[in-house]
Design brief:
The chain is built from 14 helices and 13 strands. With about 350 residues, the protein is an alpha/beta fold. The two termini are about 30 Å apart.
């Protein structure tokens, strides 16, 4: 764990401040839940906190408390810039490096003359003045809970804050099934339920709100599944044309890579998604056991993340992406076979 400048940050926040809170590009449940929870907490402490997201997030997260106050940097640029310019500090949540917000917003943040405070659980974080970093914690939402706890303010957590935090922990742990889910995670979840988080409602809003097109897209993705038993590896592809065919909406591919990982005998799974907007192939990696997809992504696909969940990108065609990926697998055969017995 890295806890840098915490006491100084407490002193800085002892008086009312204008604060901006930023999540990463293509925000997921943990990014949205953690930023909104921190905003609601800081507002209760007498600050003026504004959440600025680089771009849109999935529709199944728009029901979260205070979601309607979020600025989108790509769409509400003047409002976002105004909030950033007026702020006295920027909190960076659920990402470890400024490039994770996308080039346009990165340029703005790199020119920011004041200080950053980072709360994040990804490996190898950028150095900022105030930092709470812990790669062993399952989600940034759990870290925000513990940040509130370290400030002695757990009593300030109400049903809205609890709902945001529960959502992020639930989504980043795969509904509490990943190895990073600890007994402390469950104790925090129990407390959030006691404080008003309605677990059944949250689960239904996130996981049981599929569109017809999203289910058809899942069927297409599964039909594209390829398996390489000798490397205990499986991957899924989705082209731009396939996405358009089923009226793709942001968030429709969340969690699809886990279907590949669920196959018996598979240690390493990936999904490659064509993104014409950024002119890249977006990649999500998942693994079981000791095989580090964080290191694999860093080594080959300009990415990173956690040991068992990471992302990356590829500049080129889908065909070139698949060829490049396949070419790397033989170099990892021993690691994959020895990750653990499945």
């Amino acid at each position: 764990m890295i806890l840098k400048g915490f006491e100084a940050l407490k002193t800085f926040l002892a008086q009312s401040r204008n604060i901006v809170i930023v999540g990463h590009r293509n925000p997921d449940g943990d990014a949205v839940g953690s930023t909104l929870a921190l905003k609601l907490y800081l507002d209760k402490k007498g600050h003026k906190a504004t959440v600025v997201m680089p771009n849109e997030y999935p529709d199944f997260l728009h029901w979260l408390p205070s979601s309607d106050t979020v600025y989108r940097f790509d769409w509400q640029n003047s409002q976002s810039q105004k909030a950033i310019n007026a702020s006295e500090i920027i909190f960076l949540l659920d990402f470890n490096a400024l490039h994770r917000v996308g080039s346009d917003m990165q340029n703005t943040l790199e020119q920011y003359p004041k200080d950053f405070a980072m709360i994040d659980h990804h490996q190898q974080p950028d150095d900022v003045k105030y930092m709470y970093s812990d790669v062993t914690i399952c989600s940034t939402c759990q870290m925000v809970y513990q940040f509130i706890e370290m400030n002695g303010d757990v009593d300030l957590i109400d049903s809205d804050i609890a709902t945001c935090l529960y959502t992020g922990i639930m989504t980043d742990t795969g509904s509490f099934r990943f190895r990073s889910t600890t007994s402390k995670t469950h104790r925090i979840i129990a407390n959030l339920i006691d404080k008003g988080a309605e677990n059944d409602k949250i689960h239904n809003n996130v996981y049981d709100a599929n569109s017809y097109g999203r289910l058809l897209l899942l069927g297409q993705a599964l039909s594209n599944l390829q398996i390489f038993p000798e490397f205990k590896t499986a991957f899924i592809t989705l082209t731009e044309a396939e996405k358009n065919k089923f009226d793709f909406q942001k968030g429709d591919t969340d969690g699809v890579v886990n279907y590949a990982l669920s196959l018996k005998g598979i240690i390493f799974a990936a999904i490659f998604i064509e993104d014409k907007e950024q002119n890249i192939i977006k990649i999500s990696f998942r693994s079981k056991g000791k095989f580090s997809v964080n290191q694999f992504a860093r080594n080959h696909f300009n990415g990173g993340g956690h040991d068992n969940a990471a992302g990356g990108k590829f500049d080129g065609t889908m065909e070139a992406m698949i060829t490049d990926f396949k070419n790397h697998l033989p170099n990892y055969k021993d690691e994959l076979n020895n990750s653990y017995e499945v």
